[in-house]
Amino acid sequence: MRKAFGLALVLLAAGCGKAPDHDGGGGGGGGERATSAAADRAVQAPGIAPSAAPGVAFNYKYAFRLPGERIAAVQEEHAQACEKLGVARCRITGMYYHLNGERDVEARLEFKLDPAIARGFGKEGIAAVTHADGRLVTSEITGTDAGSAIDAVNRSRADQEEALKKIEAQLAKPDLGGRERVELQRQAQQIREAMAAGKAEKEEKQESLAKTPMTFSYESGNAAPGVRRALSDGFANLVAALEWMLLAAITLLPWLLLAGLGLLIWRRFGRRRPAPSAAEAPPA
Fold it and tell me: Is residue 76 part of a domain?
C-alpha cells in the first residue's frame, strides 16, 4: 500500500514538472501569435506575385479614405518611401492634391515600381494609411499578357526578315523591269515600316514588364472615393445647363418681345377691313 502511494507521488511530481506544450492552442504565446498573424493579414495588399504570372504586366490601383487633415502627411510618407528605394526601383511619375472648400481633400500619387517589390510596396502603403486612421476602400489590379505579345512580334519579325531578303535578292537582278522594280521597292518599304512598328511595340511591352505602374488615390469625408467627384461633376453640369438656358433666354427675349408686339399690332389694326367706296357701295 505504501509502495503504491509512493509511486503515485512520483508520477504526480513528474507530471507537474513537465514543460508546457508550445504546439497547443491554449498558451498565451499562441494566442498572441494568432492575433499578430491576423493583423498582418488585415493590412496585406491583395495582389499576385510576379513569379505566379510570368510575362504579365500588372497595373495596381488603390483608393484610400482617411481624415482630410492627414492626407498630406500620408501622401508625403508614401513619396518618401519611394524615394528611399532609389530611382532604379521606384520613381514618382505624378502627384495631385486639391483642397475643396475647407476640409474636403482629393489627392493622388503615381509610381513606376520594380515588379518584384510592387506588391510589398502596396502592402506598406496600406499599413501607413491604416496607422493614420484611414482605410483601403478600393483595390484594382489589372494585367496584360505582354510576354505573348513579345513572342508574337519576334515570330513576325523572323517572317518579315525572310520576306525582305527575297525581295532584295530580286532587286539585285540586273534585268529586272522598271515597273516590277518599283513594285518590289514598295513592298520592301512596307515590310521595313512593319518591322519598325513591331520593334516599337516590343520595346513598349518590355518596358511594361520592367516597370509596374501603381496609383494611390486619397479622399476625405464619408462618401466613397469617386462619389463626391461624380456629385461635383453633376452639379457643375447642372449649373452649366442653367447658364446656357439663361444666355439663350437673354438672347431671344428681345426678338420674342418684338414678335409679340408685331402680333399685337396686327391683331389690333390688321384685321380691320377698309370701308367700301361709292362705286363699290350696293344700290339702295
Answer: yes
